[in-house]
Design a protein that fits this description.
Layout lengths: L6 H19 L6 H8 L3 H7 L3 H26 L3 H18 L4 H13 L4 H26 L8 H21 L6 H16 L2 H17 L3
Helix pairs in contact: 1-2, 1-4, 2-3, 4-5, 4-7, 5-7, 5-9, 6-7, 7-8, 9-10
Length: 219
């Protein structure tokens, strides 16, 4: 009796194998045969799940971003208050990037490919994650304002800027070869920006703690 194939697992295995190969050799140098060999299957099996190499490239990014969004959402949901939710977003981002440190340059290649290809699915997927982060960031910022932690600020504009700064910290970390601690870089960024937005009452309550973090920098 033939074994029953778990198609979802097989698809995940192919995507995971593709991520390894794409990270090692780059998108353009990678072939379906390379991916099939990494996955321990025939090339034809890969084509049963993905019509083109580009479809598989997109599937890698989609899988990563889905994992990231689910990690953020889960950790935010478990947080007990708004400040803890903010920290949950930060910690989830650091965890996600550190887990994929060896494949981090692949994210940059995926972003670059999204700007070059005629296939709109890449930019659509990237922008879906950015909307998720921007909406969550704006929601948390509004809560911080309402609770008296932050002074009045355009929450949507601030969330948009925060998303861009996060991307910039990640890019600097990749270009530096992971030469500085990513978790401390994100904590420093959060403390620096948060200090500037605190209400007078909140600044009085948190000043010493934040000042200590700012003075330590990335140490």
């Amino acid at each position: 009796m033939p074994a029953i194939v778990d198609k979802q697992k097989k698809r995940r295995d192919i995507v995971n194998a593709a991520a390894v190969v794409f990270a090692q050799t780059g998108y353009h140098e990678t072939t379906i045969q390379h991916i099939a060999r990494q996955a321990g299957i025939g090339k034809g099996t890969v084509y049963e799940y993905f019509a083109t190499k580009e479809d598989l490239f997109l599937a890698v990014y989609d899988a990563w971003m889905t994992d990231y969004e689910e990690l953020v959402a889960r950790n935010v949901e478990q947080a007990t208050d708004t400040l803890a939710k903010v920290e949950a977003v930060r910690d989830s981002t650091v965890e996600f990037y550190q887990q994929r440190a060896g494949q981090a340059p692949l994210l940059l290649e995926l972003w670059a490919h999204a700007l070059r290809t005629d296939n709109p699915a890449f930019l659509n997927r990237i922008n879906a994650t950015r909307r998720f982060l921007n909406n969550l960031g704006a929601e948390l910022t509004k809560e911080l304002i309402q609770q008296g932690w932050f002074t009045n600020v355009d929450a949507q504009a601030f969330a948009l800027l925060e998303t861009g700064i996060n991307d910039g910290v990640f890019l600097a970390w990749v270009l530096d070869g992971g030469g500085f601690p990513l978790d401390k870089a994100y904590t420093f960024r959060q403390s620096l920006i948060g200090y500037g937005l605190l209400s007078e009452q909140a600044r009085h309550m948190l000043a010493s703690r934040l000042q200590s973090k700012l003075e330590r920098g990335l140490d």
